[in-house]
């Protein structure tokens, strides 16, 4: 079985100046990522996910998703 990860930018979660639309927050992104069947995630833009290592580990463990890139 091939396992595939994805990144917040695939959900439109990027920092664009002047962008007035709404984007998914971290929990929504991880919920949708897991529901879509992805096996892991990338960190995304600094501050999108918790930057404290303990908080980040707890969040990723909650969704059973490893962090594969930053």
Please outline what is shown here.
This protein has helices at residues 26-35, 53-63, and strands spanning 5-6, 40-42, 67-69. It is α/β, with parallel strands linked by helices and 70 residues long. It is globular and about 40 Å long.
Plain-language structure description:
The protein has 70 residues and is of the alpha/beta class. Helices cover 30% and strands 11% of the residues. The protein is built from 2 helices and 3 strands. The chain has helices at 26-35, 53-63; strands at 5-6, 40-42, 67-69. Strands 1-2-3 form a 3-stranded parallel sheet, with helices on one face. Strand 2 (40-42), helix 2 and strand 3 form a beta-alpha-beta unit. The longest helix is centred in the last third of the chain and has 11 residues, at 53-63. The chain is globular. The model has no long low-confidence stretch (mean pLDDT 89).
Keywords:
globular, single chain, 70 residues, 2 helices
Largest sheet: 3 strands, parallel
Instruction: Round the Cα radius of gyration to an integer and report it.
Output: 12 Å
Topology pattern, helix = H, strand = E: EHEHE
N-end to C-end Cα span: 24 Å
Basic shape:
globular
Q: Total helix count?
A: 2
